[in-house]
Every structure is written in C-alpha cells, then in structure tokens.
Write a structure and sequence with these properties.
By secondary structure, the chain is α+β, with helices and mostly antiparallel strands. The chain has a domain of 168 residues: Aminoglycoside phosphotransferase (APH), C-terminal lobe (Aminoglycoside 3'-phosphotransferase, Chain: A, domain 2), CATH 3.90.1200.10. Helix content is 43%, strand content 13%. The protein has ten helices and nine strands. A four-stranded antiparallel beta sheet has the order 1-2-4-3, covered by helices on one side. Strand 7 and strand 8 form a beta hairpin. Helix 5 packs across helix 9 and helix 5 packs across helix 10. The longest helix has 22 residues. The chain is globular, with a radius of gyration of 18 Å. 41% of the residues are buried. The N terminus is likely disordered. GO terms for molecular function: transferase activity.
C-alpha cells in the first residue's frame, strides 16, 4: 500500500498496518473497526483483517493486516482492473441485508448529498467566466430544480455496506491474483447501493487516471430501475464536485488549473 493519498497516519510494518486517526468526531475508528469485522466474517480477504483496536485511546488506533498490491488512483484502468473491481463490489454487496441494516447509516449518502448540493446552490455561487463551466452549472441547477433528486431518496432496494468514499486510492489491486481489495472504512455504514456506485464512478480521483464507468457498471447485476438511479446519483455527485471546484468553491485552490472544466464536461455528459 502507499501513503500518497492517506489523510491519517499509516504505520506500515512487515505484515500489519497501524492506522492512527487525526479526527474521530463522527466515530470514524468505530465505523472502520465494525466494518472490518463484518467484512472479515462475510467477505474474508476483501479488506484488511482486523487484528487489534484501541478505540478509546487518543488518538484512536486500529491494527489490521497488510495487503499486497498497489492503489488504482492514478492508473489507467485496464479490463483486468475493471473486472476485478466488479468482482470486489459484487462480493461486498452480497453481505446479508439483515447484517447491513443493523449498522449505523453512512454519514455520506443520498440525503446528505442532496442537502449539500442544495445548500451550495442556495448560496448562488459565481460559476465564473468559462462558458462550459457556466453551462454545466446552469444545467445542473436546472436538474436539481426538478423532482428527480427527491425521487432518488425513495430507495426500495435493501442497503449495502459501503465505504461512502469513492476515492480510487481505496482500491488496491494485486496483479498476482488479479484481485481488488478495499481499504479505508472510516466513513462506512449502511448505504444505498446506487449512491455508492455513483460516488465511486464520479469521485474527483477519477481525473488522476481513467476508469470507464459504463464498462464497470455493465459487469454489475443492476436492474433497469437501479441502473437509472445510479445515473441520477452520478449526476448529483458530479454536480457536487463542480460546485466545490468552481471559481467560488472551497476546494478550488487544491486542484490543478482546468479541473473545473474537466468536471463540467463530465457533468454535461451524465446529464445527457
């Protein structure tokens, strides 16, 4: 594993990883420890094996097994990568619904995402002078004014255990076994599967490499209605990133020039 994209202190040892948290106000250590235990029981090998937890320490820490491989953020995903990601997601989403329902909801999910985008738009941010960014902003705002976002909140499918973080740095590919393992469960919980897929395919980390969302989604068992909900959440997540990365966005100073335009292009594509 690499520490390039981690925001917490990661102590890499020969066969274990010790993760120490710099923030735990949302119960991050407890969420991660619980998720790792569930994964170890129902999908062993898909994520690090939980070994020891110091949840009440300051800072809290978790010791887990160290997995082989390299992160996929920054990579151009090959067919082998996409197939391995799909297999990992299918295993993850087969964890029994009864077990998942008993978990705390993930802090980042459909309702929080819709509310966040509406809050951003209510502040009437300046979309800047780039015509493409302005067009994406206008079309995204128009879509948010329809009933589509509210319909996304009416989930009829059972929840899945989700990391609620689409960062491609959390996808660890082992070329020897052609397996993808999933790391970083501190924001995890029960979540909407369609939202999780929208978050993964539209996370800003996709700009560091390439991952064909259609190729990935085609390998998953999605009913037509759920596939349409995934498309809706892709729109929502892409719009959220545009609002964060536009001229008035809080995240703009941390990204290379041209990022907002690239996000705008993607948003217009998923708005179709």
């Amino acid at each position: 594993m690499t520490t390039r994209f981690h925001t917490h202190h990661i102590d890499l040892r020969d066969d274990v990883v010790v993760k120490r948290y710099s923030a735990w106000g949302r119960g991050e250590p407890q969420r991660e420890w619980t998720a790792l235990q569930v994964l170890d029981r129902y999908a062993p090998g898909l994520a690090p094996c939980p070994l020891h937890a110091e949840l009440d320490a300051e800072p809290p820490a978790i010791t887990m097994s160290r997995l082989p491989g390299r992160v996929l953020r920054g990579e151009d995903a090959t067919d082998a990568h996409v197939a391995a990601i799909a297999r990992a997601l299918n295993r993850l989403h087969r964890i029994p619904a009864g077990t998942v329902t008993a978990l705390a909801p993930a802090p980042w999910g459909p309702r929080t995402a819709v509310a966040k985008v509406r809050r951003f738009l209510a502040a009437r941010p300046d979309p800047g002078e780039d015509p493409l960014v302005r067009k994406a902003h206008e079309q995204g705002a128009a879509w948010m004014a329809t009933t589509d976002p509210d319909r996304l909140l009416d989930a009829t499918h059972p929840p899945v255990l989700g990391p609620a973080d689409g960062n491609h740095a959390n996808l660890l590919y082992d070329a020897r076994t052609e397996q993808v393992r999933l790391v970083d469960w501190e924001d995890s919980g029960s979540n909407d599967r369609a939202f999780e897929l929208g978050e993964l395919t539209e996370h800003i980390s996709r700009l560091d490499g390439t991952l064909d969302p259609d190729a990935l989604l085609a390998r998953l068992d999605l009913a037509p209605r759920e596939a349409e909900r995934v498309r809706g959440f892709r729109r929502l997540v892409a719009l959220c990133w545009l609002l964060q990365l536009g001229p008035a966005g809080a995240a703009t100073p941390h990204n290379p020039p041209g990022t907002a335009r690239r996000v705008a292009e993607r948003l217009l594509a998923v708005l179709g």
